[in-house]
Design a protein that fits this description.
The complex is a heterodimer of chains A (110) and B (158).
Chain A (H helix, E strand, L loop, with lengths): L1 H5 L6 E2 H7 L9 H6 L5 E2 L3 H13 L5 H13 L5 E6 L2 H8 L5 E6 L1
Parallel strand pairs in A: 1-2, 3-4
Helix pairs in contact in A: 4-5
Chain B lengths: L11 H9 L16 H12 L6 H28 L7 H9 L10 H14 L9 H16 L11
The chains are: A alpha/beta (110), B mainly alpha (158).
């Protein structure tokens, strides 16, 4: 909650992350999460994003599909400057990706 | 007998559903708004100066930003009311907001703590009420001023 409270700009959730954690927005038990991080926070991966994700995976082979998708989303969100905070359980791989993305990442372990 | 349509009271979820459609909904709805003349003129001028590409875009963006800020404040307040243990301190939020930035508060964490504590004393529910963004802005602005020495008397030596 501290992270969401501190977020000053866009909060985004790559949809693949929702799949990974089992967050179905239509489920009744997701109501609170849906309010705090509403549906307009969902971001999908388009063709250009998939290309970029593949490039990042080439640079950091151990990074998962979810990790590189998050990194691509961070690049989009942070495109006009500022720090993008990434909440992840996989701090090591995200920090490895942070060295290759075009924005400043603040990787926070969940 | 007059029929008065019954309308359910709007909920936060209704607002969030409407906001979720903002990016996908393309069909415009004609609406008539009475704006103060000075505001109308200001929007026209700002649009000409490059704020937005059209009058409609300017008003739409302004409304979207305000609606999203309001929805965020309401969502935070609702969550914190249900889960008071989740309320972070104003200092924690301020620190988090400036991490990895060049804000002077990064090198003066105690100053951030002190200013945040001062605000929280005077506005105890600033975070829990969802008005955290205004509170953090005030804290960080004050930290910036104090770190720059504003208000400190210059010592003169002869």
């Amino acid at each position: 909650m501290e992270a969401v409270t501190a977020a000053t700009g866009r909060v985004v959730v790559p949809v693949v992350v929702r799949v990974e954690v089992g967050w179905d927005r239509t489920a009744s038990h997701a109501a609170d999460a849906n309010r705090i991080v509403p549906a307009d926070a969902d971001v999908t991966l388009d063709a250009a994003g998939a290309n970029r994700a593949s490039q990042l995976r080439e640079l950091v082979p151990r990074a998962s599909v979810v990790d590189v998708t998050v990194a691509v989303a961070a690049e989009v969100v942070g495109a006009d400057g500022g720090v993008v905070e990434v909440l992840t359980s996989d701090q090591r791989d995200m920090e490895a990706l942070a060295a290759h993305v075009r924005v400043t990442l603040d990787v926070i372990r969940l | 007998m007059r029929y008065i349509p019954y309308r359910m009271a709007a909920t936060l979820d209704d607002l969030l559903d409407a906001l979720a459609e903002l990016e996908t909904e393309t069909a415009p709805k004609s609406t008539s708004i009475r704006l103060p003349e000075a505001l109308h003129r200001a929007i026209q001028i700002a649009t000409e100066l490059g704020m937005d590409e059209s009058f409609t875009a300017a008003t739409t963006r302004a409304l979207k930003d305000r609606l999203r800020a309001f929805a965020r404040q309401q969502a935070l307040a609702a969550h914190f009311a249900a889960y008071p243990e989740d309320v972070p301190s104003l200092a924690a939020v301020a620190h988090r907001r400036i991490r990895l930035t060049d804000h002077p508060g990064v090198s003066k964490p105690q100053l951030v703590d002190d200013v945040a504590a001062w605000f929280e004393q005077r506005w105890p529910d600033c975070v829990a009420s969802g008005h955290v963004d205004e509170a953090v802005e005030e804290v960080l602005r004050s930290v910036e001023l104090l770190a720059a020495g504003v208000g400190r008397r210059q010592r003169r030596t002869a």
